[in-house]
Amino acid sequence: MNVAYPSSEFESDLAAIEGFADLLRTGFENPESIRGTVRITIPEHPDQSFIARYGEELFIERHDMDRETDTQVVIPIATIHRIFNEFEFLDWRDPAIIGTITFTGNLAYANHLAKSCIRLSNWTMARFRKAGRLHAAKGYRNLTEVEYLNQPTQRQILEVMEESRPVVITGLEPTPPCRDWTIDKLSERYSDAVVRVRSATHRQTMAEFVKELKDFEANPYDDMIEGFVKPYTEGANLPEEMWADFGPLFFDREDFIPPQLWLGSVPTHIPTSSLHRDPLTGFLLQVIGRKRLDLYSADQENLIYPMKSYNNYQPCWFKPEAPDFNIYPKAREAKGLSVTLNPGELLVQPAGWFHQVYALDSPNMSVSYFWRY
């Protein structure tokens, strides 16, 4: 399953560009036989630009560069170097990364290609293998419901994490309580906080984002592209201005990596987060509206077709919301369980559990913290 570690340093920019093309090619998968072309332009070295053509494998072409392509991506050489230096934890939602790149054309192709150039660490693989063995030994694929715990102690939470067992915690809320929050209150309190960065030319403050949500509610659409066209922050960094109101309800802030914001409006039949798993234990606090999570145990990875190229989280090719059993036949055997989170409830989801998330109400808001250990 592992894709070999890439180099981290190059003798020249030209070598880094060649390494980047090879990174895309070796990380590429195309089980659904998508056909398309993406032009990659490096502004500091325009003569080293290339076209990535989708086939059964990814073809890197450097001839006829003036021809039309489905997608155009402009990426600075400094960002290419950074991709290699940070491949184990590179997050495309990071404004310092996505904020340097411009995209035009078919954004779904750009999203597909972005997933080809990240790489997992040996540590992440070991975490997932451990979770798979534990879930198999405990028979978690046969679970039919998620346990609820009312006001548990930190010791109980640690025991849950050790057993790799998902639970919903009730009876605890931040101050002010979740029931008091609305998108208008968010816009008023954090109006100038930057909540979403989509490219070098597209970033939004809370006030701007809330306006987009209201526009979407008035004129909804279904044509959404993960990472680009969706009225949802998709786990963007929680602005520091919001930390005091949505801090972790257990342990210390230093025990978690920086929190993430999941705010927006998404139709109930479209996942807010597609099927994936994380190598860290997640604490998901539901703030506005309800969410449903569909969970699959880690020992079912051979049934739901996880991608080979990943780092912070591992997406799956299989889409439970639109199953294609001709392409993904083993998925017929997968067993999942569902849980609904209400405002003020907290899901503890141990590392390795595959999950897909739906917003049952719009607008919707959650805040997540990942246990760093």
Care to describe what's here?
This protein is an alpha+beta fold and 373 residues long. The chain has two domains: 13-117, SCP2 sterol-binding domain (Nonspecific Lipid-transfer Protein, Chain A), CATH 3.30.1050.10; 123-370, Sandwich (Jelly Rolls). The chain has helices at residues 13-27, 77-85, 95-98, 107-114, 122-138, 154-163, 183-189, 206-218, and strands at residues 37-41, 50-54, 58-61, 71-74, 102-105, 147-150, 167-170, 194-199, 202-205, 236-237, 260-264, 273-277, 282-288, 291-296, 314-315, 336-341, 346-349, 354-359, 364-370. A seven-stranded mixed beta sheet has the order 6-7-17-13-19-11-10. The longest helix is centred in the middle third of the chain and has 17 residues, at 122-138.
In a nutshell, what does this entry contain?
Residues 227-373 form the JmjC domain. This protein is α+β, with helices and mostly antiparallel strands.
What is the topology?
Layout: H1 13-27, E1 37-41, E2 50-54, E3 58-61, E4 71-74, H2 77-85, H3 95-98, E5 102-105, H4 107-114, H5 122-138, E6 147-150, H6 154-163, E7 167-170, H7 183-189, E8 194-199, E9 202-205, H8 206-218, E10 236-237, E11 260-264, E12 273-277, E13 282-288, E14 291-296, E15 314-315, E16 336-341, E17 346-349, E18 354-359, E19 364-370
Parallel strand pairs: 1-4, 6-7
Antiparallel strand pairs: 1-2, 2-3, 4-5, 7-17, 8-9, 10-11, 11-19, 12-15, 12-18, 13-17, 13-19, 14-16, 14-18
